[in-house]
């Protein structure tokens, strides 16, 4: 078969390939085609991402696209590659890593398109180059959920499955996720060249990122007009914003290694992530993370630590340590301000004393109050005046009543109360709880993908009521706390 997907309309009018990462040259990657998978089938597709890419939705039904996004049929115009990066894993220098199971097909219409789980690469190390159905569904649904929550993230166009199996803790069937982002460049791409003292590719990469993603840094007069220091500061700011969103919505990433940190401040590499059920600030969602390095409440400090690793890598370009440190100093005040702003918005207040937020969170932690349900019920209480449902979430009712009194006074007696309806637009009804993912995955293993579609619909508009889907908005069942999600995916 002459296996070039050459659908003229697709290539010429829908996807215009302009593979700029490829133009960086051979030191940055190995050119490599994805490896085919047997008898692929659709698991799920995101119409929203297809639209964003400029892909005609009707194309998404075609068998050619199924084959193309399985890695079975090359797409003309693409220049597939696996990129090389290094990184710190669990705080230790891990040396060279790289796309061990992802292939960047190229860039079309301003977005890089990557197949994850598409077979062995020179960077697969001990791995098999594949991703399993379970983790692929989780990544697909969560990236779309995060986007709908207004949190910067990579996106996902589709998941295809195959009955071929790989071994994890047990045999599992494989899948391929098509991921989409402006760029998949990670902190680890910079660390790679810095660790090898390869200044020329390091500079080339930084200049590429400045020109493409951060042109404002080239003009900046701050930080002595040093473009690389400004790059570091802007990445610091974006990362601070991203993590503030995580903390406000109760998202735990699980593996914040520097190779999983996006240079664009996007949530990247969905593995053992979790949305909090009961509020527990020290929650560890990754079963492999025994020491709790990536516990929920460590995330801001870990992000800052990771930015130090990026700063270290950029130092040869910045030249002056004091400028790098100044750039990093943006993190703490910006994170604190953004987090405060988001928490006030969740409370439906223009501003609130820090103590009101901290006291609420300690009450919630003590009584193990469900994080998402609390905020939704509080929002409804503001809209309809019925406080019983939110009060019922607490064991220590007098303590809650005392807090509620302080809150109500702020709402009624100051100018701080915002429109109650706004609370329903920041406090989601639906988040991708682990058990919801598990239910959809269990059905998908039997080729029933309706659970995945249902979740995609709910998570695409998580602030809407979606009457009839109370199970998906309810408390997690008892078995939910037994789910163990590890790095193995
Ligand atoms: P992660 O912790 O998932 O970000 O993965 C760390 C590194 O291991 C990355 O370079 C991945 O590409 C690689 N990797 C993870 N799983 C596999 C796998 N099944 N096969 C090959 N490489 C993998
Ligand atoms: Mg990774």
Number of domains: 3
Q: What share of residues is helical?
A: 40-55%
| Rg (C-alpha, Å) | 23 Å
Secondary structure: number of strands: 12
Shape: globular
The share of residues in extended strands comes to 5-15%
Q: Helical stretch count?
A: 18
Summarize the structure.
This protein has 489 residues and is an alpha+beta fold. Helices cover 42% and strands 13% of the residues.
Structural description of this entry:
It contains 18 helices and twelve strands. The two termini are 33 Å apart. The chain is globular, with a radius of gyration of 23 Å. A hairpin with a 3-residue loop joins strand 9 and strand 10. It has three domains: 161 residues, no CATH class; 155 residues, no CATH class; 75 residues, no CATH class. The protein has 489 residues and is of the alpha+beta class. Strands 2, 6, 7, 8, 9 and 10 form a six-stranded antiparallel β-sheet that branches. The protein is 42% helix and 13% strand. Helix 4 packs parallel to helix 18 and helix 8 runs parallel beside helix 11. The site of adenosine monophosphate (AMP) has 17 residues, from loops. Adenosine monophosphate binds next to loops.
What are the SSEs and their pairings?
Layout: H1 8-14, E1 29-31, E2 41-45, H2 47-53, H3 63-68, E3 81-83, E4 86-89, E5 92-96, E6 102-108, E7 111-116, E8 131-132, H4 133-148, E9 155-167, E10 171-181, H5 187-195, H6 199-213, H7 216-219, H8 227-249, E11 251-252, E12 274-275, H9 299-318, H10 321-328, H11 331-346, H12 354-366, H13 371-384, H14 388-391, H15 397-413, H16 420-423, H17 434-445, H18 450-460
Antiparallel strand pairs: 1-3, 2-9, 4-5, 6-7, 7-10, 8-10, 9-10, 11-12
Bound molecules: adenosine monophosphate and magnesium ion.
Adenosine monophosphate (AMP) is lined by residues 97-101, 123-124, 127-130, 255, 259-260, 269, 271, 487.
């Amino acid at each position: 078969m002459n296996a070039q997907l050459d659908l003229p309309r697709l290539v010429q009018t829908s996807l215009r390939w302009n593979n700029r990462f490829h133009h960086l040259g051979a030191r940055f990657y190995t050119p490599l085609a994805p490896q085919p998978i047997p008898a692929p089938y659709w698991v799920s597709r995101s119409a929203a991402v297809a639209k964003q890419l400029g892909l005609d939705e009707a194309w998404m039904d075609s068998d050619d696209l199924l084959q193309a996004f399985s890695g079975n049929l090359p797409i003309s115009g693409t220049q597939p590659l696996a990129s090389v990066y290094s990184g710190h894993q669990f705080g230790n220098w891990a040396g060279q890593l790289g796309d061990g199971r992802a292939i960047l097909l190229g860039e079309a219409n301003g977005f890089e398109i990557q197949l994850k789980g598409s077979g062995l690469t020179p960077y697969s190390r001990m791995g098999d180059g594949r991703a399993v159905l379970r983790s692929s569904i989780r990544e697909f649904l969560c990236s779309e959920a995060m986007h709908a929550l207004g949190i910067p993230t990579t996106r996902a166009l589709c998941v295809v499955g195959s009955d071929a199996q790989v071994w994890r803790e047990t045999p599992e069937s494989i899948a391929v996720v098509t991921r989409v982002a402006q760029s998949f460049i990670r902190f680890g791409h910079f660390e790679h060249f810095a660790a090898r003292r390869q200044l020329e590719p390091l500079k080339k990469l930084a200049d590429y990122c400045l020109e493409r993603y951060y042109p404002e840094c080239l003009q900046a007069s701050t930080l002595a007009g040093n473009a690389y220091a400004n790059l570091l500061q802007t990445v610091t700011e974006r990362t601070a914003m991203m993590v503030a969103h995580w903390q406000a919505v109760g998202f735990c990433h699980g593996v914040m290694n520097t190779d999983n940190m996006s240079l664009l401040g996007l949530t990247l590499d969905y593995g053992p992530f979790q949305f909090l059920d009961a509020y527990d600030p020290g929650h560890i969602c990754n079963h492999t993370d025994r020491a709790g390095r990536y516990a929920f409440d460590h995330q801001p400090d870990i992000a800052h630590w990771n930015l130090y690793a990026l700063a270290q890598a950029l130092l040869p370009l910045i030249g002056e340590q004091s400028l790098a440190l100044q750039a990093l100093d943006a993190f703490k005040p910006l994170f604190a301000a953004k987090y405060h702003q988001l928490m006030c918005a969740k409370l439906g207040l223009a501003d609130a004393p820090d103590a009101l937020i901290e006291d609420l969170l300690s009450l919630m932690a003590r009584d193990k109050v469900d994080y998402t349900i609390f905020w939704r019920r509080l929002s409804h209480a503001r809209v309809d005046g019925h406080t019983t449902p939110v009060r019922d979430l607490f064991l220590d009712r007098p303590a809650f009543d005392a807090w509620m009194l302080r809150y109500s006074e702020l709402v009624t007696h100051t100018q701080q109360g915002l429109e109650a309806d706004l609370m329903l637009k920041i406090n989601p009804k639906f988040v991708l709880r682990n058990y919801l993912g598990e239910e959809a995955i269990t059905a998908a293993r039997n080729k029933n993908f309706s659970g995945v579609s249902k979740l995609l619909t709910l998570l695409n508009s998580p602030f809407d009521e979606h009457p009839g889907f109370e199970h998906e908005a309810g408390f997690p069942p008892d078995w939910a706390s037994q789910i163990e999600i590890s790095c193995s995916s």
